[in-house]
Amino acid sequence: MKRKVLLVEDNPQNRYLITFLLEKSGYEVVVAEDGEAAVEAVPEHRPDIILMDVQLPKIDGYEATRRIKADERFSSIPVLALTAHSMKGDRVKALQAGCDDYITKPVDIDVLLRRIQEVLEGSSSDPLPS
Ligand code: MN
């Protein structure tokens, strides 16, 4: 069975590109274009993993993650934050919000695919790279 990724990204170009590459790699992809839509998409689609842009309309990716993680039905779904490369504070905030890990943008698709695979295989007990 295909693993389902919820991709939360407000930038249409990034959304299409990442969706295309994930589908090509065998994942089922559902998308949300803002933080509220992300929170609503979780019970609807029950994703295996969530890729969460942090800068989003309505509610940002931190708040969306906090709301998802606050619901015990969904708190075990891994969330990978997509953070701006230059914004080191974003990564700290992402982890504080409950994100399991982060990937810096612009997204390197090989890094992204490897990280998704690692998280889905449950190697989350490994320490985060510093
Ligand atoms: Mn954004």
Superfamily (CATH H level) name: Response regulator
Shape: globular
Unique bound compounds: manganese (II) ion
Poorly predicted segments: none
Summarize the amount of helix as a percent range: 40-55%
CATH architecture: 3-Layer(aba) Sandwich
Question: Which fold name corresponds to the CATH topology?
Answer: Rossmann fold
Can you describe what's shown?
The structure is a single chain. With 130 residues, the protein is α/β, with parallel strands linked by helices. The protein has a single domain, classed as Response regulator (Rossmann fold). 42% of the residues lie in helices and 20% in strands. It has five helices and five strands. A five-stranded parallel beta sheet has the order 2-1-3-4-5, sandwiched between helices. Bound molecules: manganese (II) ion (MN). The site of manganese (II) ion has 5 residues, from loops.
